[in-house]
Amino acid sequence: MKKITLAICAALASTTVSADTILGFDATLGAWKPAYSGAVGVDSFNVDEFALAEDNATFIQAALEHPIPLIPNILVAHSKIETSGSAMLSDSVTFADETFLIGSDVTADMNLTHTDATLYYEILDNWVNLDLGVTARQYSGELSATSDFQSENIELSGVLPMVYGVARFDLPFTGWSIIAQGNGTSYNGDSHTDLSAKIRWDFVPALDFAIEAGYRAMSLDVKELDALQSDLEIKGPYLGLNLHL
User: Fold this and answer.
1) Residue 27, domain member (yes or no)
2) Which residues pair with 79 in a beta bridge?
3) What is the rounded radius of gyration, in angstroms, for the C-alpha atoms of the chain?
């Protein structure tokens, strides 16, 4: 009888483990407060002159993991990044094909909204977690510059292939994790990085909810991605809510 009971318990435990590892889902929704620095345009106009607003940017990402060997897991992410500002030009500036003359009062609206599709493999899965993969980043943004007599609109709609990686260190028995996540690429003189460092606290373990806070830094140094020419840095703190099943 004891053997039968032990066998049933082992079977139930095995079933529970299998159910937990069939599919995994991880999603984060948050707000990011970035500051902008660097240059845009043919003449590398300093964006500090525009005094771009540090409005909150929103982001969401969701990952689905499965136990099937050789087939990668998938992560989809979307960041909505919009800002605007104005400047009185102290020198002539060219955006795309339009040159704005000295003394022009120029208003700039910048949209760097993008969507990521990432395929990745889980290399380590214990108290140290490591994922590696590749990302296709689709930009659907623009830079528009307008004065009393001129206007220019530069679309940003190219796709960038990027290397993806994330490392998570779980602090045992605490509910706290330290996470580093990033994408990066460099090709034909263009480079783009997007790096995040964050701390996550599983504050409602029974419901699989966690809160995370961190710092995100993007650099966008491009001359050949669509019509936009930029050497930008966008960085700041963020706060997010995480669900892990």
Assistant:
1) yes
2) 59, 114
3) 23
CATH code: domain of residue 120:
2.40.128.90
Instruction: Using alpha carbons, list the distances in angstroms from residue 130 to 61, 116, 217.
Output: 17, 19, 20
Q: Which structural domain range is residue 27 located in? A: 22-244
For 245, the token pair is 């099943």
β-strand partners of 143? 110, 154
pLDDT one-digit tens code per residue, 193-224: 999 999 999 988 778 899 999 999 999 998 86
Phi, psi of 21 (to 5 degrees): -105, 0
- Does residue 96 come out as left (phi exceeding 0), alpha (psi in the -120 to 50 range) or beta? left
In the 8-state DSSP scheme, what is residue 96? T
Structural domains counted in the chain: 1
**H/E segment holding residue 196:** strand 190-204
Whether 185 is in a domain gets the answer: yes
Structure tokens, 55: 């409005």
Q: Structure tokens of 139?
A: 């930009």
Amino acid identity for residue 78 in this structure? H
Rounded distance between C-alpha atoms, residue 148 and residue 166, angstroms: 47
CA–CA separation, 182 and 229 (whole Å) = 23
Q: Whole-model pTM?
A: 0.86
Q: Look at residue 21 in the predicted model and tell me its pLDDT.
A: 53
Closest CA to 227 of 139, 146, 113: 139
- pLDDT < 50 stretches in the chain: 1-20
Helix (H, G, I), strand (E, B) or coil at 195: strand
Sign of the Cα pseudo-torsion (161, 162, 163, 168, in order): negative
For 194, the token pair is 């997007």
